């Protein structure tokens, strides 16, 4: 399966696989291809990742981009600085909620706004999303 990716002015975004989410949940950061800033994951994010893994195990792999997190990588530092993702595929009205988190070390720079705009561009490619 091709991993959906997006690029913006300052960021690279790509979907995380179930195995990558499990690595994050198990604090196995050193095994990841992306070097993430150590301040990203909080206890509430761990809980959200567990829920995402459970949902992804029960659906078609083609729908995973709607249920997983997308890594947010800062182009300047080449470091993973946050996660952003949908909470499922679009509903009957064409809407899907977005959840996100970012390292405090990279906040207040407009980077999360840039990341959300980028995945919204990807979502608009789906005819069921408005």
From TrEMBL:
It comes from the Bacteria. Residues 50-125 form the N-acetyltransferase domain. Pfam families: Acetyltransf_3. Signal peptide: none annotated. InterPro entries: Acyl_CoA_acyltransferase (IPR016181), GNAT_dom (IPR000182), N-acetyltransferase (IPR051531). PANTHER family: ACETYLTRANSFERASE, GNAT FAMILY, PUTATIVE (AFU_ORTHOLOGUE AFUA_3G00765)-RELATED-RELATED. This is GNAT family N-acetyltransferase. It comes from Sporolactobacillus mangiferae.
């Amino acid at each position: 399966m091709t991993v959906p990716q997006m690029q913006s002015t300052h960021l690279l975004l790509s979907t995380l696989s179930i195995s990558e989410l499990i690595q994050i949940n198990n604090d196995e950061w050193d095994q990841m291809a992306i070097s993430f800033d150590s301040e990203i994951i909080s206890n509430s994010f761990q809980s959200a990742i567990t829920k995402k893994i459970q949902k992804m195990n029960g659906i078609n792999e083609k729908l995973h981009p709607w249920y997983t997190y997308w890594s947010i990588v800062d182009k300047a530092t080449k470091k993973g600085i946050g996660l952003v993702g949908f909470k499922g595929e679009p509903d009957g009205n064409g809407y899907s909620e977005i959840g996100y988190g970012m390292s405090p070390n990279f906040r207040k720079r407009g980077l999360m706004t840039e990341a959300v705009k980028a995945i919204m561009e990807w979502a608009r490619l789906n005819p069921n999303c408005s």
